[in-house]
Amino acid sequence: MGSSLLLVAISLGTICIFVYTLSYPRRQLPLPPGPRRLPLIGNLHQLDIKRPWESFHKWHQQYGPLVAVKFGARTIVSISSDGLARDLLNKRCATYSSRPRLSVCSENNAGELHAALMPHSKRWVLHHRIALTLLNPGLSKQYRQLQDLESQRVIHELLQGNDVAHSFDRYMASVSFTLAYGLPVQHHNQREVLQIRNFINGLRDAMSNMFVAVAEIFPLLDQLPGAFAIWRRQGEELNRHATAFFLDNSMKAQSAPGWNWVRECERLKETQDMSLREIAHVLGTIQEAGMETTPSVFRVVIKACLLYPACLSRAQEEIDEVVGRSRLPSFDDMGRLPYINALIHEAARWQPITPLGLPHCPLRDDEFMGYHIPAGSTIFPNNHSMVNDPEAFPEPREFKPERWLQSQDPPFSPFGYGRRICPGRHHALDSLFIVISRVVWAYTITHAYRNGEKVDVDAWDTHTSFTSSPAPFPTVLRVRSQTHQEIIEEAWTSTKEKLANFLGTFNPTSGG
């Protein structure tokens, strides 16, 4: 008996030593390189709070394509290579499909129901499936009917002297609200638009607020009583207002005429155990994402056309050759207007809307390129560094659409990576194409003048938080000819009637 126990003990000990030996090298692997850290705060003192991507870019220039830093207890890994980001986030998407836990931004401000910020869970999988269903390529093509009509409204508004940024905002809001609730938007300052814009700004401000950042880095601070944790009270209030807004519109959509996302969601098997409140948040997340990003790309394109007039001239030459001057560009022209598409892709590269990219989080410890990637760390596919890599993009700070004509697979993924890639990317590209092609077809874009002096526009003047968008800039849009003006006005005459009757006839799930 004693010898048997001894044999078992020796066997178990041998197995333990063997397992430990196998695991020892992994546990001894270092983090990716990075700047030296201080106790407790790590690298916080070295970070540019207003433009953190600039700090990471400098570190990448010094330490290479993988950089690790510490912000308090959090480990941050930044990737400056699109190829490496694809290797890690696409090929190992089962490990990297989560988001880091954000106790303030996600749980307080968004009530744990914001799919874009939600860690991987059964709930996230359901929310993601719903978004994929509503925004799949087939349905997105059906939405082109609405995008066609609303983009005609845009170029008619510009004919009346409307602010170009306001027209872009109204367009995106109207497409989103019509699809979600059957609620078209007539004005950029309509109550619903102002409300959702307030929620977007509130969440964006929270993600760039110093106190919130400290609470995210040191989670124990979020356990402070409400009297001290002001950010928590503000976040919970923002979430209450957002929930009431999304829920109220969803309830109205149930009785609205025609097809809408709320009604479609109620038919899906994924929503059978969901409350209307949760469905409302799924749709609210989609709306927020579209209204935060797509109008910003619109404005970058206009700024680029203003500062690089040769690019605008080339785009107009292409449109005049393919489309002519007797009709508007249409979706049928998309494959025949490569320079217009290149103009859009270059705008997304030149001034990326999410400079650091959206964070991923590994569900388990991993090894990559000989480095240890800890479970629960924050992984940034660093868009700013990718698009400013001179080897991938020569003269990266110059706006050069032709670079997208020379490569079928440029090293940049503006819509993200892996299972977290933007589900609305097809819909967004359709909006960008139809609006930009028609604005470029219809208008010249020139500098504004004040007291006889040209008003200079700073290419790099941006509003920055977690996202980046062009600061307001003056510009003048003039219709290219009397013929263009007549076509815009004639098209709008019939479009008004079509928009008025649209909700009664639109049913994309039946192919109508």
List keywords for this structure.
two-stranded antiparallel ribbon, disordered N terminus, 8% strand, 18 helices, globular, oxidoreductase activity, acting on paired donors, with incorporation or reduction of molecular oxygen, Cytochrome_P450_fung, 512 residues, mainly alpha, Cytochrome p450
Structural features, described:
This protein is 54% helix and 8% strand. By secondary structure, it is mainly alpha-helical. It has one domain: Orthogonal Bundle (Cytochrome p450), CATH 1.10.630. The strands form five sheets. The protein has a three-stranded mixed sheet with strand order 1-2-5. It has a two-stranded antiparallel sheet with strand order 3-4. A two-stranded antiparallel sheet has the order 6-11. Helix 7 (164-181) runs antiparallel to helix 12. It is globular, with a radius of gyration of 25 Å. The model is unreliable at 1-26 (pLDDT under 50).
What is this structure, in a nutshell?
InterPro entries: Cyt_P450, Cyt_P450_CS, Cyt_P450_E_grp-I, Cyt_P450_sf, Cytochrome_P450_fung. This protein is mainly α.
